[in-house]
Amino acid sequence: MRSVFWIARRELATYFVSPLAYLILAVFTLVIGLSFSLNLIAFANECLVYGNNPYYLQQLNVNEQVIRPLFGGFVPVFFLILFPAITMRLLPEEKRQGTSELILTSPISSLQIVLGKYLGALVVSAVMLGSSLTFVYVLTSVSKPEMATVASLYLGVFLLGAAFLAIGLCLSAFTENQVLAYVLSVGTLLVLWFLSGVSKSTALTDKLGERAAAFLENLSIIEHFSDFSKGVVDSQHVVYYLSIIAFSLFVAQRVVDSHRWR
Amino acid sequence: MLLLKRLSAPVGAVVLLASLGTDLILPERSTLVAVLLGVGLFLVLLGLLLNLKEIASRARGRAAREGGADLAYIIIVAVTLALANFLATRHHKRIDLTEQRNFSLSDQTRRILSALPREVEARAYYYSGTLAAQKITDLLDEYAYQASTPPTRKASPTPS
Questions:
Q1: By CB atoms within 10 Å of each CB, which of A70, A90, A211, A217 scores lowest?
Q2: Shortest CA distance to A186 belongs to which of A52, A83, A98, A65?
Q3: What would the pLDDT profile of A150-197 be if each residue is shown by its tens digit?
Q4: What is the pLDDT of residues B9-28, one digit of tens each?
Q5: Mean pLDDT calculated for residue range A242-257
């Protein structure tokens, strides 16, 4: 376990020594801040317009109109573009620098290597998510958001991000080329994302049948996120994301291990 | 014994696939699916246990054997996780964390939905992109989630 933390620490140092992590954090905070401000202004305007009508006032909900569109719709798309950029260098960089031989011949197991690198990337994503808590804090000063719903959203976003990172790490293990690793990751995530749309297509449902469409819907990575964004925590979605993470890390471990005997 | 050793894992995998197929095609045969699932899992585990030494020796063998073993491990992990997800979908816990339980249906509604005799078509007319549209979609999602036969949804053309 100690080796895992050492590798994670080294990864974190690499991220934060180079401008990559700062750039990603800056872009994330800027864009999410802009989107948050627009949502908040629109909500404030609605409060002003409908404030005198008790019925409409009752319908207004800061969670539904500010937080959910932000984290439920915008953040996952942002993750899909940014997270492969974090994972694309994890394993190919070692090969490019020629340090992979050193690591593979050291007494560290391939599982420890994979877990350490994954943990490093996960901490970067947690820092990103942590920075967005500022907006929730701002919101609490002007409104009363339901904190349990916000916690559910954050759990969902964290699990979704963790699954994205695991898939990205797994695919980066197959190639020495960082650009290829990025393209492969984004492509795979897009396919997993759009399975939901495919399953909802009437023509395909007619052809494949309801059960096959439901199966495709269950495979979709974003379909399992929608409940979290509403404030509903369902054990099946948690199991799905943990399965994706476990499987991706297992495949990555086998691929890294295969370099020892190749 | 030799036959059992050689065939139990592949036959188990086929039985597992058959259970998944049966569940997809004949979802009402839940007992058959459960029996096939149990038998398949038992055979796969038995095959793994009987071939444990061979698997271990292959793992120490040449590159091709290593690759084969890796692939086998990956398939086993994938099947195990697929089964875990299958079980998690069937037996799951749903917690609505919203203060006013916005996504929890009343017991009466649940009873009606679970006793629906046939498929129901739900039609909703709303302006897309509004809060009302979101609420209706969420409500229909909950109905679909609870219903024994999920309702068919028809999106109506909405003026923008």
A1: A211
A2: A83
A3: 999 999 999 999 999 999 999 998 888 889 899 999 999 998 988 877
A4: 888 888 888 887 777 667 67
A5: 92
Query: CB A218 to CB B24 under 8 A?
Result: no
Domain locations along chain B: 1-60, 61-92, 107-146
State the greatest distance between any 2 C-alpha atoms of chain A, in Å, as a whole number: 73
pLDDT on residue A237: 93
Nearest to A171 by CA among A191, A196, A154: A191
> B160: pLDDT confidence band, cut at 50, 70 and 90?
very low
CA distance A215 to A193: 14
Model confidence pLDDT, tens digit, residues A44-68: 888 888 877 877 777 777 888 888 8
The whole-angstrom distance between residue B64's C-alpha and the CA centroid of its chain comes to 33
CB A232 within 8 A of CB A152: yes
Amino acid, single-letter form, for residue A111: L
Residue whose structure tokens are 């649940």: B110
**Which of A 38-67 lie inside 8 A of B, CB atoms?**
59, 61, 63-65
Mapped to the 3 state alphabet, what secondary structure does chain B carry? CHHHHHHHHHHHHHHHHHHHHHHHHCCCCHHHHHHHHHHHHHHHHHHHHHCHHHHHHHHCCCHHHHHHHHHHHHHHHHHHHHHHHHHHHHCCCEEECCCCCCCCCCHHHHHHHHCCCCCCEEEECCCCCCHHHHHHHHHHHHHHHHCCCCCEEEECCCCC
Q: What pLDDT is attached to residue A151?
A: 92
3-class state of residue A173 by DSSP: coil
